[in-house]
């Protein structure tokens, strides 16, 4: 198992920069095309596809995504869809809804949203770099602790990663619940 090769595959997933978001509003088909093209490099064959028309309509009906204005989606819509797409693999729909309502409540101006997103991308890159730097070392330690058994080490490391991700997910849910609670006071 070549962990470095797996890391290199993950590194290929480049986020959409704020400056790449169209400054004009788009119709649904244009939104789908934009997201498919820009998220394609991040989506593997076994992984979930980019947002669909049905998904966007469903999020709008649930009130998680603001309705389009005259059937057009703004930069704010695109930004929310990108962030929702990033959260979707680990967060349930109600937590994503809390996130979007808090986002819109706390960051109502475009400049605030831009700063938030750009800071997110910067911090996410730093966290990802830190994560990747430690992965090979941690995997080597797991192999050593299990007597150099490659298959068993991979199995153990997958479990450790999943457990760690679940813990971070629980923490994210607690944070969102507290934000929602403090907003309703």
Short key terms for the protein model shown above:
mainly alpha; single chain; about 180 residues; globular
On the 0 to 100 scale, the average pLDDT is: 87
Taking the alpha carbons of the first and last residues, their distance comes to 52 Å
Largest sheet: 2 strands, antiparallel
The tally of domains stands at 1
Specify the overall morphology. globular
The proportion of residues in beta strands is: under 5%
DSSP summary: helix tally: 7
Could you characterize what this model shows?
This protein is mostly helical and 185 residues long. It is built from 7 helices and 2 strands; from the N terminus they run H-E-H-H-E-H-H-H-H. It has one domain. Helix content is 69%, strand content 2%. Helix 5 packs across helix 7 (150-183) and helix 6 runs antiparallel to helix 7 (150-183). The protein starts with a helix and ends with a helix. Mean pLDDT is 87; it is low at 42-47.
């Amino acid at each position: 198992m070549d962990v470095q090769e797996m890391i290199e595959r993950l590194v290929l997933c480049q986020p959409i920069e704020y400056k790449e978001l169209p400054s004009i509003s788009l119709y649904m088909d244009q939104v789908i095309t934009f997201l498919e093209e820009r998220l394609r490099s991040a989506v593997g064959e076994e992984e979930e596809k980019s947002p669909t028309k049905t998904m966007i309509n469903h999020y709008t009906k649930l009130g998680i995504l603001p309705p389009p204005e005259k059937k057009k989606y703004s930069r704010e819509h695109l930004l929310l869809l990108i962030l929702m797409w990033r959260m979707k693999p680990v967060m349930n729909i109600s937590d994503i809804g809390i996130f979007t309502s808090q986002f819109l409540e706390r960051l109502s101006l475009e400049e605030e949203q831009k700063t938030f997103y750009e800071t997110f991308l910067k911090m996410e890159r730093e966290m990802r770099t830190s994560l990747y730097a430690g992965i090979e070392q941690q995997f080597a330690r797991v192999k050593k602790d299990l007597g150099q058994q490659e298959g068993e080490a991979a199995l153990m490391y997958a479990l450790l990663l999943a457990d760690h991700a679940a813990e971070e997910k629980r923490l994210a849910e607690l944070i969102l619940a507290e934000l929602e609670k403090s907003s309703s006071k």
